[in-house]
Amino acid sequence: MLCWYDGTTQHPRSSRYPPGRANAGYHFRSRGTDMSKIKVLIEEEQEILREAYRNILSKEPSIEIVGICDRPCIGSGNREDIEKVLGETQPDIVLLGTRLVQSATIEGLEVVRVDFPKIGIVLLSAHYDAEGIGRLKGFAKNNTRGAYLLKYSISTAREIVRVITDVASGQIILDPQVFAGLIQDSDMADSRMSELTARELEVLGWLAMGYKNSAIAQTLCLEPKTVERHISNIFSKLINGDSELKHPRVEAALSYLRASGQLRQDVPKKI
Predict the structure, then answer these.
(1) How far apart are CA 44 and CA 57, in angstroms?
(2) CATH number for the segment(s) 2-174
(3) What is the pLDDT of residues 179-216, one digit of tens each?
(4) How deeply is 26 buried, as exposed, middle or buried, from its count of CB atoms within 10 A (0-12, 13-18, 19+)?
(5) What is the residue extent of each domain of the chain?
(6) Domain with residues 189-271, CATH architecture
(7) pTM over 0.70, yes/no
(8) What are the helix (H) ranges across the chain?
């Protein structure tokens, strides 16, 4: 039996797939899809978060949940399962929640990128260790849109909706901690960016997302003066005393966005 997700209940329906294969543990919706909405497939290892995402996104007028995976599909790296699930649900966005970025996770993301290039990826991990970031490097450089975030960095319903909407519009969003690991690859940043400390990169990441100093301080549990000092150091390292720049905050944000692949390299650097 195959279950179809309609936002409130799960209705059994005959499946053309053998019992115990790709239909097991997946709840889909296939008819009555509103083409004006962002179609989201949810795959989350933790039940409490899976239910939280479902409750939040089902109330958002601009989003439609087309499926919920309560066992690994994308995260399993199994091409057959992935192709069946994505073929049935046809999402615009896959919301993938995991504890760690395993090799199978990247294998699954590669299947999505190659076989379903129009689907955006929102990867939420409880932790990005050195091995996980190493696995993510190659994929992130070749992926044209997506979000790679720590779960704890998403603290409100509005934030998760914004991330999904931004990725659906073609953006790349990187958690500052993930970016700090990724820029160790010289292909992803210039030498000035690599001079920033891990904390400065973290502050710059939030600055580039449009956060004011007070909001950055609150998010990172820092004193406002500490944030101001970090930003001053960032300006000093990135802008290098260029007196022609009228808006150093904007220039610093642009530098971050260029280095992370969120902005074309040919965007004018003088602000």
Answers:
(1) 14
(2) 3.40.50.2300
(3) 766 665 545 445 678 788 878 888 888 888 788 999 88
(4) buried
(5) 2-174, 189-271
(6) Orthogonal Bundle (1.10)
(7) no
(8) 47-58, 79-89, 103-115, 130-142, 157-168, 176-182, 191-194, 198-208, 213-220, 224-239, 248-259
